[in-house]
Structure formats: structure tokens, C-alpha cells
């Protein structure tokens, strides 16, 4: 693919063009393109399964570490706190890298950090300390913070503005493929045959239990060993592929039409005064926290309700969950093409809240199956909230606004920890799912308000 720069004509907005197999694709001054470059869009979308695999492996690690390190539900949930805490801390620095360079540069940096984080699992397994594993997970999250901050916003920009939400929803459809891959890797490489870890450890002497735990920690290396090879291949593909910049054009020659790049403090001041943006951030915080919490404790819920199954069998419920998540995205895309996305997601939120009530209070295996089914309703939420929140921001603030929306992923660090604490305090893993019920209610309120705003317009 060959890049061409148009002449910078006085008084006109700068436009950048890209020659591709589809012909010339024009980039406008707001950063959007006249058409979507298909090859680049597919390659970009292939990043989404990469953080899906890392996130779903956390669900495996929570269950594994609880038994190996003898943790409470709250302490085991710190896996998610380390993971999403990394997102929170790195999102703004990642946005600054994007502002100074390009989306492609931030993506390459993210892939490098991801590889380093996976590599840290090797010393962690030999040191056999929980804190070292948390450090490795935190390092992976730094890489994923770069990837998500760049890729989510870049997906919305990589084509015409009017299809920004649709593009992000299509890219997000790739996420559950990675999530299912992560669970399968965990099921067959981390979890082993036999009874549950707790039941096996209960029959061992102190020395036998220590040796067994060390052996179980060695199994956590295998998925990350395979992921490193995939990441290296993706890094090379991105490095040799040319991408459009999709950056807002800043000109000094035109007094009326120039779009000046605002400073960081000015951007924060603008975003702090944008009510719609703040509501979107809070809703995304609660949504991500709820989704992560449900997935974090589905295996634990299955083991609690049916103590006769082991971790490997219980992992099947997470596979079913991600299949539901995948199907739910396609169903939602179809429904949102025919009906208002706000109405569709309000309807989803109502159903999801009712399912979570059932999960919290009905003490049989059907509660686990409904914990699986609720993933159908998660499918379109992240991408739609992200795109709608970003749309409420003036184009010159896009990079920082996108980073702050990604920062709302910190909900994945907080809500699972709260659910784990509720489980410890009440002694009921099942009742702790009420935390997610209240989160889904809040998400429903956001879309109900959006429906009212839509009607008013």
C-alpha cells in the first residue's frame, strides 16, 4: 500500500490519501476515512482476541490460585485488580503516545509489553509467590492498556464517521474467539484430570501438598508460552503493514477552519464539564466490572453448587459463556440494525437484571446455566457505550477521551473484589451475584435515559 500526501493548500483542510487494492481512500481533516481499508481493519480486529485470551485466562487463574495459595474469594479476585489496575494506570500514557506518534506505534508498544508480561510467568512459577504472579499479570495489562486504548478508538476511525459504532461492534465480535481460546488453553493446560484441587489437597500430607502445589503452578506456564509465539507473529505483521494515520489535522495557516490540538489540562477541563461523557464513563465502569465479576466467579459458582465436579469440568461453563457472548453480539448487531440501539440495550439490561436475581437466590445447577446465559446480553454493551461516549466529545479531544473510557475498565478491578468480599462476609458465593444485579440495573438506567434523549430529539 502506497501513501500519497496532497498539497497543503492555503485555507483548505489537509487531507491524506491512501492507495489500496480498493482504490484511493481519502482521509478527512477529522481523522475519519472515506472508506474502510479491509486488510488493515481485519488485522486490527485480530488484536481483540489477544486481550480476550488474557482476560479469560484470569478466570482460570482465580480458581487455580485460590486452592494453590489458600486464598479467600476477595484475595483471589486481586488477580482482576492487578489486571485492570494496569489498564487504569497506562491508558493516559498510552493516549499521549498516540497523540505524539500514531495508533500503529502504540499498538506495537502494547504487543511488546504483552510479550514481556507473558515472559514473567516463567520466573513467577519458579518463585512460587502470589505477588510475583500478580506482577506478571500487571505487566500483561500494561501491554493490553496500550492495545485497547489504540485499537478501540482506531476501529471507530478506520472508515466513514457514520459507521463508527458498527465498525467497533464488528471488531469486538472477534473478542469472544480469543476468550474461548483462553478458556480452552486453561482447561487443558492448567487444570488437570482427577478430583477438584480442594478435594485432592485435603487428602495429602503437608509435604505432599507443597509438592503438588508447585506442580500445579508449573502448569500455568503453558498457555503463556503459546501466546508468546502468536504475539511475535502479530507484531511482525503490524510492523510490515502500512496503516493510515487517522489523526485530526491541525493547521496553522487557516484562521477559521484550523483545528488546534488542545493541551492535556485543557482536555481534562473540557471532559470534566461534559456530562454525557461522565455518565458514559460511570456506566462503562459498572458494566465492565459486572461482566468481569460474573465471568470471574462462574467456575467457583459451579464448584459450590455441584461439589462433585472438578475445575476442568467446571471450565466448560466458561466455554458456554463465551459462545453465548459471541452469539449475543451477532443477535445484537442484527437487532440494532433494525431498532434503536438504546432500546435494544435497555431491553437487554432488564432481562439481565432478572437473570441475575435468579442466579442469586435459586440454589440448584440451573443458576449456573443462567450465569452462562446472561453472557448473551453482555455482547453489545462495551462497544456501544464506548462509541456513544466518544461521540459526545469534540474531535480534537478524541485520543484522551478514548483513553479515559478505557480507564473505566478499572471497574474490572473493583467490582469482582467487592463481590469476593460479599461472598466472604455472607459465606455465600451465590448471594454475592447480587452485586452484579445492581450494576446491570444502573446500565439499564443509562440506556433508559438515552431512549428519552433520543425521543426528545
Automatic annotation (TrEMBL):
Subcellular location, principal: membrane
**Topological category with respect to the lipid bilayer:** Multi-pass membrane protein
Q: Cellular location of this protein?
A: Cell inner membrane
- Pfam families recorded: MFS_1
Could you name the Gene Ontology cellular component terms for this entry?
plasma membrane
Any idea which UniProt keywords this protein has? Cell membrane, Membrane, Transmembrane, Transmembrane helix
Query: Membrane-spanning regions, if any?
Result: 41-62, 74-94, 106-124, 130-152, 173-191, 223-241, 285-305, 317-337, 344-361, 367-389, 401-422, 428-448
GO MF annotation: an example: fucose:proton symporter activity
InterPro entries per record: Lfuc_symporter_FucP, MFS, MFS_trans_sf, MFS_TsgA-like
Domain of life of the organism in this record?
Answer: Bacteria
Q: What is this protein called?
A: MFS transporter, FHS family, L-fucose permease
Q: Which organism is it from?
A: Propionispira arboris
Amino acid at each position: 500500500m502506497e501513501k500519497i500526501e496532497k498539497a497543503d493548500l492555503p485555507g483548505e483542510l489537509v487531507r491524506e490519501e491512501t492507495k489500496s487494492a480498493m482504490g484511493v481512500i481519502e482521509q478527512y481533516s477529522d481523522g475519519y476515512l472515506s472508506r474502510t481499508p479491509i486488510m488493515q481493519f481485519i488485522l486490527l480486529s485480530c488484536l481483540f482476541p489477544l486481550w480476550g485470551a488474557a482476560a479469560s485466562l484470569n478466570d482460570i487463574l482465580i480458581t487455580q490460585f485460590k486452592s494453590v495459595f489458600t486464598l479467600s474469594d476477595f484475595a483471589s479476585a486481586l488477580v482482576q485488580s492487578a489486571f485492570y489496575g494496569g489498564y487504569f494506570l497506562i491508558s493516559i500514557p498510552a493516549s499521549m503516545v498516540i497523540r505524539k506518534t500514531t495508533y500503529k506505534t502504540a499498538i506495537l508498544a502494547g504487543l511488546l509489553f504483552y510479550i514481556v508480561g507473558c515472559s514473567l510467568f516463567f520466573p513467577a512459577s519458579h518463585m512460587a509467590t502470589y505477588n510475583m504472579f500478580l506482577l506478571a499479570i500487571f505487566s500483561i495489562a500494561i501491554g493490553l492498556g496500550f492495545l485497547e486504548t489504540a485499537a478501540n478508538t482506531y476501529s471507530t476511525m478506520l472508515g466513514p464517521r457514520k459507521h463508527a459504532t458498527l465498525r467497533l461492534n464488528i471488531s469486538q465480535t472477534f473478542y469472544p474467539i480469543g476468550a474461548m481460546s483462553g478458556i480452552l488453553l486453561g482447561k487443558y493446560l492448567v487444570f488437570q484430570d482427577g478430583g477438584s484441587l480442594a478435594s485432592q489437597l485435603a487428602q495429602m500430607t503437608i509435604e505432599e501438598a507443597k509438592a503438588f502445589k508447585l506442580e500445579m503452578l508449573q502448569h500455568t506456564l503453558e498457555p503463556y508460552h503459546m501466546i508468546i509465539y502468536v504475539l511475535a507473529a502479530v507484531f511482525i505483521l503490524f510492523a510490515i503493514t502500512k496503516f493510515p494515520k487517522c489523526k485530526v489535522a491541525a493547521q496553522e495557516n487557516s484562521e477559521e477552519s484550523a483545528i488546534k490540538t488542545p493541551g492535556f489540562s485543557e482536555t481534562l477541563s473540557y471532559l470534566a464539564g461534559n456530562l454525557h461523557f461522565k455518565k458514559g464513563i460511570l456506566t462503562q465502569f459498572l458494566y465492565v466490572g459486572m461482566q468481569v465479576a460474573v465471568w470471574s466467579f462462574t467456575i467457583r459458582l459451579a464448584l459450590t453448587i455441584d461439589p462433585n465436579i472438578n475445575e476442568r469440568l467446571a471450565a466448560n461453563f466458561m466455554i458456554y459463556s463465551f459462545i453465548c457472548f459471541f452469539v449475543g453480539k451477532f443477535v445484537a448487531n442484527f437487532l440494532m440494525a433494525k431498532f434503536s440501539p438504546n432500546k435494544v440495550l435497555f431491553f437487554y439490561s432488564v432481562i439481565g437484571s432478572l437473570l441475575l436475581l435468579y442466579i442469586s437466590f435459586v440454589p440448584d445447577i440451573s443458576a449456573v446455566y443462567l450465569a452462562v446465559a446472561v453472557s448473551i446480553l453482555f455482547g453489545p454493551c462495551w462497544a456501544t457505550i464506548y462509541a456513544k461516549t466518544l461521540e459526545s466529545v469534540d474531535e480534537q479531544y478524541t485520543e484522551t477521551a478514548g483513553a479515559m473510557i478505557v480507564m473505566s475498565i478499572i471497574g474490572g478491578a473493583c467490582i469482582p473484589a467487592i463481590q469476593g468480599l460479599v461472598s466472604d462476609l455472607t459465606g455465600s458465593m451465590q448471594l454475592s451475584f447480587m452485586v452484579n444485579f445492581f450494576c446491570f440495573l444502573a446500565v439499564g438506567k443509562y440506556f433508559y435515559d438515552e431512549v428519552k434523549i433520543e425521543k426528545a430529539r
